[in-house]
What does this fold into?
Amino acid sequence: MPVKSPIPPPTYELERELAEGGATLIAGVDEVGRGAWAGPVVVCAAVTDGSPPPEGLTDSKRLSPKRRIAMADLVRPWVRDHAFGQATPEEIDEVGMTEALRRAAARALEGLTLRPDAVILDGKHDYLGRPWAVRTQVGADLTCVSVSAASVLAKVYRDTMMAGLDADFPGYGFATAAGYPSPVHRATLAEHGPTPHHRMSWSYLDDLPKWRHLRRRRSDPGGQLSLL
It folds into this structure.
């Protein structure tokens, strides 16, 4: 059986390229919660100082929950600055995911101590737009230091938030699946219906005979962007 090559750690290649183009403050941005059925979409903006990142930093999806938490504890005091923004399930239902992502990202960037003059977004779609100077990069959460940092911080922040809902809404798996579809989540939804934290315009409700009448229809559904 061939041995898998180790995944290279993220680098500052993109940050250096933007700095050579005149950017002085660069923020890496990543989102979490886009595909969940419940809870907000959360965006983190992270600014680094160019120093070596904590050992083992990578895309949050490649870390176990325990390792993500430990990595976030290392990343928080290491980054120069970071901030979170979110859009609620109600906003997602009202304006669609593309606009919800834009709002959450803008809130994160506006929460930074200093306004960045360049932003690196993971994926190929610029859902942020003007007035921000955006550079998109597929796989930036794996290859770009500042975006990897944002990825870890956003994931741990949202997972912790969703776990806090578990006591009030047991059975939906919020502490383990963070509002994403899972067998437990699907079964509890079918029996007990959506909570106030569920996205009510989403098509999963069409598959729940007892609850499909609750689905909120939007004249402009907005869709879900593929951010890869």
Notes: Confidence is low (pLDDT under 50) at residues 221-228. The CA atoms of residues 40 and 85 lie 10 Å apart.
